[in-house]
Amino acid sequence: MRGLLSASALALSLALSPAGWVAPAEAAPVRLKDLVEFDGVRANDLLGYGLVVGLNGTGDGLRNAPFTEEIMANILERLGVNVTGEQFRPRNVAAVLVTAELPPFARAGSPIDVTVSAIGDASSLLGGTLVMTPLNAADGQIYAVAQGTIIAGGITAEGEAAQVTQGVPTAGVIPAGATVEREVAFDFAALDSMRLALRTPDFTTAARIESAINGNFGRPVALMLDAGTVEIDIDGTGAPSPAHAIGRIENILVEPEIRARVVVDQRSGTIVMGEDVRISRVAVSQGNLTLRIEEAPMVVQPNPFSPGETIVVPRTNVGIEEEGTGLAEVDGGTSLSEVVAGLNALGVAPNDMIDILKSIRAAGALHADFIVR
């Protein structure tokens, strides 16, 4: 089967397998803002612990979630209601964790979205209302306060003997449900230099970013420090402020250098690879082993008017079938996309194709990062 990867097989695979392998497109220039993170321009995570009320009997069972009773008592006491020694057994409240992300340059009074998730045994947060909940950052300070009606993403229906759940009714969101109360102390305008952190560190990409920025300003204002960092001299750009300098360079087009990489997902049978993936000369043999077991029991009855009983005699047919595609030899320097296209032409299943790629990598013939998820 030396002709496995012939030109006719490749053409047939591309013509008859539209749902199979698709050749990768050529690299295109990308905006600088999509390749790097600007030093200091980052979001901060917020976390709070609160109470959801107004649930239709789907809240926490307070015997199983005593913390719900505790927070409810604290809220009522802050409102002037004395509940000392009282026993609560409602099913319309639930304890939740509230998470949010404080975006960069958020100002006091700005609204942000929040996510609400049940932490007790509540079965649904649908229709609930989050009571005023402070949101803290990692430094322990309160940066926002959340409150509002929850939009849950699921529903639960149940009867006497069955229950069905669609989505996740124990988690939901509140769009613009929190208000920023404290701003992050960061004097962006006082910066005299800024570092650009590459999301995918690469020396070639960093060098191209340095060259593109210097070419845009006509003088050396950018310096590559390593594979993941490029430093910008804000004063050298002549811009009136760091914001003006960043606004000028963030839309510069740069063609990133992508490492040869193969990513496979065994659960879905998905294979994704870059255009620079190459393999050396290698021979591949792949086959399938099928085991068939069939039960054909036979009923045996005694003769008429004779003592005895009817019995079932087990009968089992067992067979093994093995099918193989033979030995395929691939020339060195062949792109992996051509190999996969040839395997598609032969009707190789995605899971079998993943096993073949693993074997090629184990043989040292696959020259790329191999990532299995």
TrEMBL record:
Keywords: Bacterial flagellum, Cell projection, Cilium, Flagellum, Periplasm, Signal. One of its GO terms (cellular component) is bacterial-type flagellum basal body, distal rod, P ring. One of its GO terms (biological process) is bacterial-type flagellum-dependent cell motility. Residues 1-27 form the signal peptide. Pfam families: FlgI. It is found in: Bacterial flagellum basal body. One of its GO terms (molecular function) is structural molecule activity. It comes from the Bacteria. InterPro entries: Flag_FlgI. The basal body constitutes a major portion of the flagellar organelle and consists of four rings (L,P,S, and M) mounted on a central rod. Belongs to the FlgI family. Assembles around the rod to form the L-ring and probably protects the motor/basal body from shearing forces during rotation. This is Flagellar P-ring protein. It comes from Pseudoroseicyclus tamaricis. The gene is flgI.
